[in-house]
Design goal:
Blueprint lengths: L1 H20 L16 H10 L6 H26 L3 E6 L2 E5 L2 H15 L8 H4 L10 E2 L13 E2 L9 E5 L6 H16 L3 E6 L4 E6 L7 E7 L5 E7 L4 H12 L16 H9 L10 H18 L12 H16 L2 E5 L5 E6 L5 H17 L1
Parallel strand pairs: 5-8
Antiparallel strand pairs: 1-2, 3-4, 6-7, 8-9, 10-11
Helix pairs in contact: 3-4, 7-10, 7-11, 8-9, 8-11, 9-10
């Protein structure tokens, strides 16, 4: 065992040494000093690979500690009214109101990357403006907290989140296990190899994964039904979801107020679109059919345009739905070839059920809030 461990360590050292030798100065540094365009050269140097030295490990550990100690609890408990159970490095476990869970996941990702501008307005108020990307500065620190900008892991770090939503009487351990499974779905590949008996060969088939930097959610209903939904964090699903939440959920101070999007819309979507094969990858023909079905449902299950008061517009809702459908139809990922090298932008269309489940998830959360 000692020999094998020594061989592995030797191989890692040789690989690191080779990677360090291949590093080159950014263009412009070798020809002139000082460089003609100092800001661009400095940015190129900061973006270039660096050896994984002990000092790099210390700096990265500091960034993880800053997030876990000073940001995660503030985001979960102060901004989204949840309860932080555990926060260590890049791992966070928390309980949250169902209506705040997705928003909290997005804010945690923005904080982890040090991107204040991508946070919700309430979260932005907890940190000072004018701080460079990759850093966060607490707006109202306690006497024990640092007053200087805190280093975060940075925008190149991906974040994968698993959520489990269920009734308050669901066993907590079951919810935690399901959240862990959802996190694995968020990290899993969008396609997987399966054996085709007829062709006696392997082929790529649709998988529930999203290829990291994504959110995956499992919703438990008391009836026993389970709904699964997910999306990449830069997906067109989130602008659509935010728009639906704004015009579908009841205000806390006006529980009887009539909303522009009626409560029946998600169920009519599931009813009319459910007659198609929603588990197969979405193709162009089905996408166009779905767009027309959705336009009809919106015309029947929403109020009149009210851009002056609520800001609701049927045309805007149709546009956001169309954008999400196009994304599902044209979804791509870097699929590995036979040698394990990634083939960039390999088509992997997602199923229509992803679109339906977004609305069913929001309908469940709204009903529980009522």
């Amino acid at each position: 065992t000692q020999n094998s461990e020594g061989e592995i360590a030797k191989a890692l050292r040789e690989k690191l040494a080779c990677a360090t030798k291949e590093m080159k100065k950014p263009e412009g540094w070798a020809t002139a000093w000082p460089p003609n365009d100092i800001p661009s050269c400095l940015k190129a140097w900061l973006d270039s690979p660096r050896p994984l030295s002990p000092s790099w490990h210390l700096q990265f550990s500091e960034a993880l500690a800053n997030f876990g100690l000073h940001v995660a609890r503030r985001m979960v408990e102060e901004v989204h009214h949840g309860q932080l159970i555990y926060s260590g490095g890049d791992d966070v476990l928390a309980m949250l109101p169902a209506e705040n869970a997705i928003a909290c996941a997005r804010d945690l990702r923005a904080a982890f990357q040090g991107r204040r501008v991508q946070m919700s307005p309430v979260a932005q108020a907890r940190f000072k403006s004018g701080v460079p990307d990759g850093f966060l500065q607490i707006a109202d620190p306690s006497p024990q907290e640092p007053t200087w900008p805190l280093l975060m892991p940075g925008h190149r770090m991906t974040v994968s989140v698993g959520l489990a939503i269920g009734h308050v009487k669901e066993p907590l351990q079951d919810m935690i296990q399901e959240a862990q499974r959802a996190e694995k779905r968020a990290k899993a590949d969008p396609q997987r190899k399966v054996w085709n008996k007829e062709r006696t060969s392997q082929e790529w088939k649709l998988n529930d994964g999203w290829g990291r930097d994504a959110l995956a959610l499992t919703l438990f209903k008391r009836s026993g039904e389970t709904i699964r939904w997910g999306a990449k964090f830069d997906s067109a699903a989130f602008p659509l979801l935010s728009y639906v939440q704004r015009h579908y959920r009841q205000p806390w101070d006006q529980p009887e107020a009539e909303r522009p999007i009626r409560s029946r819309l998600p169920y009519r979507l599931a009813q009319l679109l459910g007659v198609y094969d929603t588990d197969l990858p979405l193709n162009e023909e089905l996408r166009q059919i779905a767009e027309k079905e959705i336009a009809y449902i919106i015309s029947r299950q929403t109020g009149d345009d009210d851009a002056g008061v609520s800001g609701f517009s049927r045309a805007e809702l149709e546009r956001l739905c169309a954008d999400y459908l196009k994304e599902l139809c044209s979804f791509k990922w870097d699929r590995p070839d036979e040698q394990g090298k990634p083939r960039k932008d390999t088509p992997a269309p997602r199923p229509l059920r992803e679109f339906i489940n977004l609305f069913l998830t929001e309908a469940f959360i709204r009903r529980q809030a009522d």
